[in-house]
Amino acid sequence: MTSAMTDNSTPPETEVLSLLPARLRAARRDQGLSLDAVAKLSGVSRSMVSQIERGESSPTIATLWNLTRALQVDFAGLLEGATDAPGIEVLRDASVPTINNKGQGCSIRILSPPEEVGRHEVYDIRFAEGGILDSDPHKRGSREHLTVISGIVRLKAGTQVELLKAGDTARYPVDQPHTISAETGPAQVFLVVQDG
Amino acid sequence: MTSAMTDNSTPPETEVLSLLPARLRAARRDQGLSLDAVAKLSGVSRSMVSQIERGESSPTIATLWNLTRALQVDFAGLLEGATDAPGIEVLRDASVPTINNKGQGCSIRILSPPEEVGRHEVYDIRFAEGGILDSDPHKRGSREHLTVISGIVRLKAGTQVELLKAGDTARYPVDQPHTISAETGPAQVFLVVQDG
DNA sequence: GATTAGATTCCGAAATACCGGAAATCCGTC
DNA sequence: GACGGATTTCCGGTATTTCGGAATCTAATC
């Protein structure tokens, strides 16, 4: 058969899988390896490597995994779309998207682009005195990285509680309910959410 | 046959693939979906989904891809090791590791743990008037996310130049030389480096 | 131009991923 | 405890991946 790739559910747009063959071949050639060499390194037969590199076969994750280890490429990055923007994108102070109706007495300024899902998001959060931000658990494995710019905040993650003042930083898993509050006065924090 | 997973080249340690079935099943159950439901959503048959979730079959990347889209999980993250730390880690203002001898007139406060390489790093950088931080290109695909806390800074990435003041944010690729400088007075910026 | 060494592609045969329907298992409800 | 309804697993058959070897292609050398 001519095209073995079962590309059902493949709208015109994101055929990320079609990029994989070329990337694999490039990775191999970059290291000056022959098909036979990677075959011995990975345990995948030469013919299979050849077919995969020509897009004539859709490898099982097991074999792909073995290939990535032999070629020393990152399994994850291999399947990601070419995500490179050309130049500097600037988001001016006045035009930062802001959410006010979440939590109480706090405004959330979204500093990362909405498209960029799956890696990390960046927020600038400003609390009035007594402001509270309550969050439900995110996806398992996610972590937050919180740095206090000014004021004093109280951080609660699961059962644990910490008091943080300007300059302090806290990191914590967020597969559990967590709360940030500014009890003693206004505060500003910088929050990086790393998706799990 | 009982175990179809071709697990050749599988040292005792990182059998990341063995985690995949459980993760898929968890993702499905979290959304309250039945095998039949995801089958219709993804185009993969119920039986296949069942087999994959029980580790009795190693899916091709094509079918796995379809599953990830139906379950709305990140293909990349699915294959990464479980990276969860137990509780809140706190880094106090006074004990933040700081670098002063890089660049001129600037001190770099490292807010992310050194172990956590490969995802993102977080820095709090403080410039004296005239301070300059020159950086060589990082790994291709890396991006920086810079937010100005106070003062005015000049950002140069490749050939492009932008002037940023307090509250402004800039995002830019760093597979090219880039420079941050505070020409008109002291400044403080927050920098998130996303590894490519 | 012929020879040789290396790399890649082609070709059965065996293994296994994949599908659709049937059987089995799990629950609530009467 | 028996009866739906829903979910999951089992069981054919088919399509595709995967392997090892043979054939083809590529280039350098003589």
From TrEMBL, chains A, B:
PROSITE patterns: HTH_CROC1. Keywords: DNA-binding. Residues 24-78 form the HTH cro/C1-type domain. InterPro entries: Cro/C1-type_HTH (IPR001387), Lambda_DNA-bd_dom_sf (IPR010982), RmlC-like_jellyroll (IPR014710), RmlC_Cupin_sf (IPR011051), TransReg_Diox_bact_type (IPR050807). It comes from the Bacteria. CDD domains: cupin_XRE_C, HTH_XRE. This is Helix-turn-helix protein. It comes from Donghicola tyrosinivorans. The lineage of its organism: Bacteria, Pseudomonadati, Pseudomonadota, Alphaproteobacteria, Rhodobacterales.
